[in-house]
C-alpha cells in the first residue's frame, strides 16, 4: 500500500543529504557504508585538490556553523495573512513577514532556480543597525525569541556593536547562510545585486567570491546616493554606495541600456547623408594584425599605406564599405572617416558609475516615500525606484520573471516592479521578505501607526499600487500581493527536535492523537502542505464541496483541478465520499493521515481507487 501513497515531507530539503546523494550518483566509489569517504575523494581529485594546510579564501570564526545553519532543514511554515493582503485571488506577488533565513529555506522547494533577479540591501554593520541573531540550533526558535526582543538571559538582541567582539565575524555569520540559500533560487541566467558601504565592502566581495565563485563576478557598481555638498569635518565626505553584482552562471547576459537624447548628442548629419545621423569612427586596428596590413586603394586609385597595426577589416570588406559610403575620404583623399550610424546602435554599455541624475538619489527616495505616506517619512534609508529599475534593465528582467528582495525594508523593490510593469504593460512578479523589526516608540513611523518595518512595507505596497492604478492607464497591472507570516508548523507530529529530553519526548508522543493543531485553519494546513510538496505561494486555491465533504481545490493554468485536499481530521469520510473525490479526477489528492482515524482498510481502498485513475495520493 505504501507504494501507492506519498507522504508529505515534514521539513524543507536537507542539503547535506542531497549533496551526498549527488556525489553518490556522480562518483559512487567515494561512498562507503553510507558516508562520504573524503580521503578517497581527495585521492580521485589528486592534483585538482587544494593543499589543506595552505588554502586561499575567506575564513572567520563561526564559518562552519554558519554553513550548517544554511543546510539545516526547518519544519517552519508560512501562514496566509488574508487581512493584510491585496487582491489575494488574482495577484502573483508575495510579501512575507519573518526571518529571512527560515523563509529562504521554505522557498527552496518550489522556487529553486526560478528567481531571475535578487536584490538585497542588508545591514551595513555600522554598529547601530540590526544583525539577525542566529544561534545555529533552531532558526525558528531564534526568530520567535527575537520577536520578544530579549534572549533567554534577558539580554537585548538587536544590534551588533564593536564592543560585543567578533564584530565582522558576526556580520559574516549572518550573511553567509542567506547568500548560500539565495544562490540556489537563481535561474541559470539569473543575477544578484547587493548594496553595501565601506564598513564591509571588502569582506562582502570575498564572501560573494566564496558563494558564487570569483568567475561569476559581473561588476562593482558605484551608486551616487547624494549630491548635496557637505561642510569640512576632516573626514572623507561619502556620496556613494557599492553595488556588487554576481551571476548564477555563464548563461547570464548583461543587457544594454536604452539610449537617450543626451547619449546621442555626438551623432550629427553634416553632409545630409540619407542614412541619417552618424559619428566618426576609427578604421585602424587596435592590436597588431600583420594579415591586415595592405595598401588601401581610394576611389580615384591612390594608394594609402596601412597603419602600424593594420586596418580593422580585410581588403574585401574595406572595399565594400568604401563602395557603400560607410567609409569616406576628404577631398585630398588623405583623411579617412568611418561613419557609425545612429540607427545601427542598439543600446549603450552598462557603466560602472550610476549617477544620481539617472537613477535617483536618497532625497528622491525620501520624496517618493513621503508622497505615499502623507508627508511622513516612515523609513530612514529608502532606495529610489529608479535604482531598482536600472538593475532590472541590466539583468533583462522580462515578462513572468520573479524579482526577490529578502531584506525588503520599505519595499522599494516591489514598488519598482509594479512601476515598471505599469510603464510597459509587463508581467514581472516580486517576492518581498521583511523581519518585523520594531520601528521604536519615538519614531515617526510608530507614531503614524506602523510599529514594525513589515507594517511599513505592506502599507507601501498597498499605497503604491493604488497610486499606479490612479495615475497610469495600465489598469491590467498587478498591484496586489499575498501576505504571509512565518510560523511554526501546524502539525504537532513534525515539531519534534532530535535533542528533546526523554520526559519531554514521552509527553510529545502522548499529544500526537491529532496530526494537526486544533486552531489551524484549512487554508493554513493547505499552505504548509503545498509548500512542502513543492507548490508556489500563488496557487489558485478555492473552497468546494465534493460528496458532502468540505475540500480545497488547486487549479492549474488551464483551470483543471490539479490538487483536491480534504483536511478535516475530526470527520472520518465514508468510502463513497472518497470515491466522489476520485471521480473529480484531480492530478493529486491530499488527505490528512488522521482523517482515516486508524481505518487502514479505508485508506487502502482510497489508494486503489486513486491508482485506478492515475491519481497521486498524498497524506500529511
TrEMBL record:
SUPFAM superfamilies linked: S-adenosyl-L-methionine-dependent methyltransferases
Protein name: Site-specific DNA-methyltransferase
UniProt keyword S-adenosyl-L-methionine present: yes
Transmembrane regions listed in the UniProt entry: none
Keywords for this protein: Methyltransferase, S-adenosyl-L-methionine, Transferase
Superkingdom of origin: Bacteria
Listed GO biological process terms: methylation
Domain DNA methylase N-4/N-6: residue ranges: 115-422
Family per record: Belongs to the N(4)/N(6)-methyltransferase family.
GO molecular function: DNA binding; N-methyltransferase activity
Amino acid at each position: 500500500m505504501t507504494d501507492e501513497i506519498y507522504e508529505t515531507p515534514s521539513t524543507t530539503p536537507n542539503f547535506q543529504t542531497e549533496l551526498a546523494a549527488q556525489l553518490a550518483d556522480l562518483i559512487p566509489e567515494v561512498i562507503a557504508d553510507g558516508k562520504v569517504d573524503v580521503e578517497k575523494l581527495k585521492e580521485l581529485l589528486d592534483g585538482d585538490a587544494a593543499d589543506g594546510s595552505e588554502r586561499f579564501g575567506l575564513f572567520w570564526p563561526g564559518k562552519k556553523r554558519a554553513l550548517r545553519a544554511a543546510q539545516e532543514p526547518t519544519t517552519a511554515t508560512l501562514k496566509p495573512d488574508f487581512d493584510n493582503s491585496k487582491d489575494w485571488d488574482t495577484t502573483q506577488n508575495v510579501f512575507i513577514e519573518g526571518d529571512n533565513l527560515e523563509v529562504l529555506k521554505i522557498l527552496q522547494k518550489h522556487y529553486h532556480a526560478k528567481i531571475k533577479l535578487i536584490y538585497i540591501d542588508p545591514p551595513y554593520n555600522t554598529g547601530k543597525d540590526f544583525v539577525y541573531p542566529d544561534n545555529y540550533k533552531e532558526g525558528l526558535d531564534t526568530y520567535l525569541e527575537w520577536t520578544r526582543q530579549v534572549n533567554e538571559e534577558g539580554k537585548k538582541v538587536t544590534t551588533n556593536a564593536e564592543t560585543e567582539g567578533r564584530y565582522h565575524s558576526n556580520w559574516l555569520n549572518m550573511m553567509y547562510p542567506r547568500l548560500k540559500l539565495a544562490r540556489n533560487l537563481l535561474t541559470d541566467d539569473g543575477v544578484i545585486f547587493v548594496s553595501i558601504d565601506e564598513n564591509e565592502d571588502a569582506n562582502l566581495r570575498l564572501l560573494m567570491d566564496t558563494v558564487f565563485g570569483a568567475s561569476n563576478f559581473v561588476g562593482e557598481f558605484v551608486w551616487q546616493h547624494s549630491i548635496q555638498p557637505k561642510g569640512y569635518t576632516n573626514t572623507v565626505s561619502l556620496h556613494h554606495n557599492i553595488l556588487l553584482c554576481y551571476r548564477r552562471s555563464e548563461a547570464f547576459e548583461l543587457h544594454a541600456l536604452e539610449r537617450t537624447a543626451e547619449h546621442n548628442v555626438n551623432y550629427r548629419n553634416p553632409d545630409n547623408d540619407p542614412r541619417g545621423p552618424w559619428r566618426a569612427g576609427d578604421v585602424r586596428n587596435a592590436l597588431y594584425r600583420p594579415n591586415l596590413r595592405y595598401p588601401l586603394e581610394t576611389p580615384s586609385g591612390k594608394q594609402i599605406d596601412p597603419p602600424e597595426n593594420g586596418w580593422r577589416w580585410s581588403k574585401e570588406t574595406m572595399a565594400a564599405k568604401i563602395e557603400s559610403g560607410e567609409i569616406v575620404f576628404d577631398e585630398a583623399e588623405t583623411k579617412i572617416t568611418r561613419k557609425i550610424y545612429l540607427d545601427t546602435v542598439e543600446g549603450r554599455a552598462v557603466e560602472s558609475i550610476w549617477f544620481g541624475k539617472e537613477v535617483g538619489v536618497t532625497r528622491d527616495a525620501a520624496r517618493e516615500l513621503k508622497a505615499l505616506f502623507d508627508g511622513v517619512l516612515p523609513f530612514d534609508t529608502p532606495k529610489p525606484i529608479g535604482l531598482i529599475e536600472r538593475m532590472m534593465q541590466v539583468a533583462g528582467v522580462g515578462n513572468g520573471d520573479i524579482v526577490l528582495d529578502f531584506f525588503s525594508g520599505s519595499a522599494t523593490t516591489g514598488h519598482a516592479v509594479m512601476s515598471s510593469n505599469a510603464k510597459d504593460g509587463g508581467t514581472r512578479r516580486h517576492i518581498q521578505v521583511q523581519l518585523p523589526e520594531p520601528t521604536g516608540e519615538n519614531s515617526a513611523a510608530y507614531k503614524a501607526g506602523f510599529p514594525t518595518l513589515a507594517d511599513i512595507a505592506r502599507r507601501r505596497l498597498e499605497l503604491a499600487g493604488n497610486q499606479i492604478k490612479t495615475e497610469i492607464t495600465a489598469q491590467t497591472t498587478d498591484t496586489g500581493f499575498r501576505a504571509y507570516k512565518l510560523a511554526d508548523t501546524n502539525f504537532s507530529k513534525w515539531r519534534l527536535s532530535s535533542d528533546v529530553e526523554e520526559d519531554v519526548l514521552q509527553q510529545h508522543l502522548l499529544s500526537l492523537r491529532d496530526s494537526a493543531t486544533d486552531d489551524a485553519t484549512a487554508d493554513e494546513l493547505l499552505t504548509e502542505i503545498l509548500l512542502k510538496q513543492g507548490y508556489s505561494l500563488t496557487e489558485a486555491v478555492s473552497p468546494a464541496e465534493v460528496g458532502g465533504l468540505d475540500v480545497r481545490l488547486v487549479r492549474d493554468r488551464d483551470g483543471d483541478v490539479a490538487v483536491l485536499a480534504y483536511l478535516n481530521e475530526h470527520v472520518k469520510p465514508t468510502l463513497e465520499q472518497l470515491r466522489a473525490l476520485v471521480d473529480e479526477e484531480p492530478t493529486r489528492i491530499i488527505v490528512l493521515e488522521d482523517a482515516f482515524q486508524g481505518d487502514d482498510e479505508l485508506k487502502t481502498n482510497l489508494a486503489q481507487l486513486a491508482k485506478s485513475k492515475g491519481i497521486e495520493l498524498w497524506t500529511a
